[in-house]
Amino acid sequence: MELDTLFRLFSPQSLTLLVLCTLYGTLVGAMPGLTATMAVALLVPFTYFMDPLMAISAIVATTTTAIFAGDIPGALLRIPGTPASAAYVEDAYRLSSTGKSRSTLLVSLLAASIGGLVSVVLLALIAPQLARVAIGFSSYEVFWLATLGLSCAVMTSNASVIKSFASLFIGLFIASIGIDVAVGHPRFTFGWYELFDGVSFIPAIIGLFALSEILRAVSTGKHQPPPIEIRETLSRAFREAFATLARYRSNVARSSVAGTLIGALPGAGADIAAWICYAFSRRFSRHPDRYGKGHIEGIVDGGSANNAAIGGAWTPALVFGIPGDSVTAIAIGILLLNGLSPGPRIFTDNPEIVQTLYGAFALTNLLMIPIGIAVIVLSSKIVRIPRRVLMPIVLLFSLVGAYAITNSVVAVWIVLVLGILGYAMEATGFPLAPAILGIVLGGIVEENFMTSMIKSQGNLFAFFERPWAAALGALTLMVWIFLLGRALYEGYKRQRALSLNTPKREP
Amino acid sequence: MAHALSRMALMTAVTLGTFTATNMAQASEAACEWTPERAVTFIVPWGTGGGTDANARRLASLLEQEMDVPFNVVNRTGGNGVVGHTALARARPDGYTIGAATIELSTMHHLGLTPLTWQDATPIALVDQNPASVVVKEDARWDSLEALLEEARENPGELTASGTAQGGIWHLALAGMLQAEGLPPDAIRWVPSQGASPAMQELMAGGVDVATPSLSEAQHLVEQDELKALAYMSDTPNSSLPDVPLTADVLDSGWTQSAFMTISGPGNLPEEMTCSYARAIEKITSSDAWAEFKASRGSEVVFEGPEQTAELFRETDQQLGEVINAIGLAR
User: Fold this and answer.
1) Could you tell me which residue ranges the DUF112 domain spans (chain A) (predicted)?
2) Neighbour-count burial of B292, counting CB atoms closer than 10 A to its CB (0-12 exposed, 13-18 middle, 19+ buried)
3) A136–B48: do the CB atoms touch at under 8 Å?
4) For chain B, which domains are there?
5) Mean confidence (pLDDT) of chain B
6) Are B57 and A45 inside 8 Å of each other by CB?
């Protein structure tokens, strides 16, 4: 790295900005109802008047920390702050319930930081090559990738395969509300313009997780779960966290690399990365039965993968100027506004942009550690508030957040309707996480399926004609066969249990 | 994004970058001296970070300096622009709500998305215009638009193109061009996408053969030799890429097509307020700050007053309505 860039990164203004944005990202990520994308959108008016390199650093710092901070309400309240935290929310919450919230969050924080740093190193080494692969992804490959992500939600669920699929399809149904992405026809909107854009996942998460949690607290009356206690001193929590990371060091390495690669692909972001890495972690774990019941291993994988994906997402944007998500789209807008055009030549023409980006990533992932520790310590004050006081406050903030996205009351209605749905699903043993992933990925799956079918004029074999598509398709089909096998086995076991319990009648 | 169709006649009427005192002639009866006394809400029907948003925010900040009250930019996204345009057109016409109305206001009712038309709003000024382009991969087998159209004529439906949603402006640009050249409007099949960026991803990945985004959206990939621009759907060369052939020159029909963005107010906005805003915006668009901003985005400075802007909406409405009918998307 050039000294010039280094000095600029460590200048008082730049450091102040990075610290401020890290704090801002933590706040936004920790609030259910505010997401990283929204945080960046709120930054945009300021970035128009900033030095472009500072603006890029600000965006990087905000998104990176917001993804980690999404784990905090997940662990403490069972409400994931961003969809990227939803994969392992159950594990994190159950660990917190046993008094281990500090070490659990420290593990998330450190895994996130390592994931972020690994992604910077990978970007510095292979960004142009990685971008070449990513740019070769057309709708066929993106379809399989998103489908694989969806299948992972069913694979990781502890509920029966049938109930997990049902939950996934509820999510996919909700995702189908709004204007059809391919031909532009409104569906299930009842002529309501506000529903044309569909159900945004932010009110959906608030409804399914936060409101249903509050409804359950109300319905259980006085028999509420006791507030989470903290049974660890900070130093013990640190020792525990370091020991955990040392034990699962190969998980951290695997998921950081995989997260970066997945994040670089078009259509896939931190959420798909976290789900896929969580699912594969369980598949290769020595204790797959403990997942979803308060096992730390999946948190290590998911936590490092989603932060690594944030870095990976910049590759196609930087190398080809084609944004993979709305965050990088905003960043490209800022670069163009300042006469800097992203493209293969950016590495030679404007190396300072690339170096600043890498530098900001590395620095943020380090700054995040002390700030994250401070937040984890502070958060222990929050959990001492009785739930019957805390939850309505959370709901109030969430509703305001949901309203703020579209400036319309429809988001509030969505929260209320999905809250009741989430309560009913929980009460009858349907897992919530697959539904959330269905809502987040449903649009991507549908759009890429329709686009592919239009391109191939209805030829289904086109989904296997390109090399990457064939590989991803085969992997997805293997996951499906595995799931079908498990469903049959579950059915067989239930049948046998039934026949054993009912006394046999003599003919 | 903003967009626009215009045949040559219209393009000449809306000559890029020039504006004359006659633009303001219709304002002769009003004094044009109204100024807002409190904050103004500025509605943008498209998302943060896009082209319309960038133009709107820059303009709003310059309007703030010009009129000395805050202009609060609100992104009312959703429904392919229906939500924001409806909010803008149906707002109280007291001068305290204005916004960015784009070319979609004259096409969305043809597509059956809304009963709202451009006549429900009050056009104030044209501030942005971006002609479409025809781009292919650098190693593609066509070296000219004529060669591409020839192949489409011989094998209708074989080639695919993308750029935006079904019925979106870049789709209409392509279909209109094919129709004007005597080809079936679906001789090159349209593959819908969520916008210009995903369409260029598809093009780069070899998923489609052609893309027709605005030239400014494809500019950096053309400059970096990843894509080649076969045509620019305009009659005036682009200042950043002056060598790209113009459709007005190479096509018999002289077809041109661009996207546009206007500043408009709610329906029945009083004449006095309309012309006061138009005057302020005219002053801003002739400033150095605005010229610098436009240059950074690879687009030209444009300005038209209320009447010409309304005329542009009217002509676009009629011509794109015909294209939408021809490709069977009218509802």
Assistant:
1) 15-437
2) exposed
3) no
4) 3-130+258-326 (3.40.190.150), 133-250 (3.40.190.10)
5) 87
6) yes
